[in-house]
TrEMBL record:
Pfam families in UniProt: ABC_tran
GO MF entry, a single one: ATP binding
Lineage of the organism: Bacteria, Pseudomonadati, Myxococcota, Myxococcia, Myxococcales
PANTHER family for the chain: IMPORT ATP-BINDING PROTEIN (PTHR24220), TRANSPORTER, PUTATIVE-RELATED (PTHR24220:SF659)
Keyword flag Transit peptide: no
Domain of life: Bacteria
This protein's name: ABC transporter ATP-binding protein
Source organism: Pendulispora brunnea
Keywords, in A-Z order: ATP-binding, Nucleotide-binding, Transport
Length: 229
């Protein structure tokens, strides 16, 4: 299977005053399309740092990241931004929704930014909300939605631009077990149905059985890489 992401020899440290914290110590990883891959590991092991480097948010000190054939960290900042906008969707722990907009408007704003307006935009936004099971909540604002519903709106917003890659950093940590399971099953279905490459970070061991693949990072290296049966 052709990888969507192919990363080699990733190293990253952070310097704060005289203290240097080495976070990633030479990570090689390939991530496949049509799969939900979850990165797990103890707190501080480097999971979010790895996700940020693979998604073009944080530059590695060393190593390369190829995404859909592009050598990510050789792109200029403007090209990198454009690449991320065109190909990647993001879902975060805190939902990041606009408080004053309805569920539908959250998606329309993003489409307008990409030059898609009018009926075409509405049809696309409604389809994405339908996909996450929220058509009936489309006119509600974040304060009127439950945590699980807010995260599903955030996923619909990521989906509406039909990205090849979807990154999710702790997408379920603000949710209870039931809603966490709904969200992770949804991410899995998105991976399968759209052949999207879905890569997430999680603390929640209960979610691992829903993943196609689980990569365990400890102290900046991959210590196991398994496919739950
Ligand atoms: N911008 C930064 N400046 C300094 N240190 C940082 C920065 N970002 C991360 N770190 C440090 O890097 C280490 C790894 O952080 P990272 O967020 O990748 O871990 P994590 O495995 O995702 O942790 P958690 O599960 O607690 O979210 C931590 O010790 C953290 O303090």
């Amino acid at each position: 299977m052709n990888s969507t992401i192919s990363a080699t020899e990733l190293h990253r440290s952070f310097t704060s005053g005289k203290t240097v914290t080495t976070v990633l110590r030479g990570i090689d990883v390939d991530v496949c399309p049509g799969e939900l891959t979850l990165i797990i590991g103890p707190s501080g092991s480097g999971k979010s740092t790895l996700l940020a480097i693979l998604s073009g948010l944080l530059r590695p000190d060393r190593g390369t990241v190829h995404v859909l054939g592009a050598d990510l960290w050789t792109l200029s900042p403007a090209r990198l931004d454009a690449f991320r906008l065109a190909h990647m969707g993001f879902v975060f722990q805190g939902f990041n929704l606009f408080p004053s907009l309805t569920a539908l408007e959250q998606l329309l704003v993003l489409l307008r930014y990409r030059g898609i307006t009018g009926r075409a935009a509405s049809a696309r936004a409604e389809r994405a909300l339908d996909e996450v099971g929220l058509s009936h909540r489309k006119n509600l604002r974040p304060a009127e939605l439950s945590g699980g519903e807010k995260q599903r709106v955030a996923i619909a917003r990521a989906l509406v631009k039909q990205p090849e890659l979807l990154f999710a950093d702790e997408p379920t940590s603000a949710l209870d077990g039931h809603n966490g399971q709904i969200v992770i099953e949804l991410l899995h279905r998105i991976a399968r149905q759209h052949r999207t490459t879905v890569l997430g970070v999680t603390h929640d061991g209960r979610l691992l059985r829903h993943a196609d693949r689980v990569i365990n990072v400890e102290d900046g290296v991959i210590v196991s890489d398994e496919r739950p049966s």
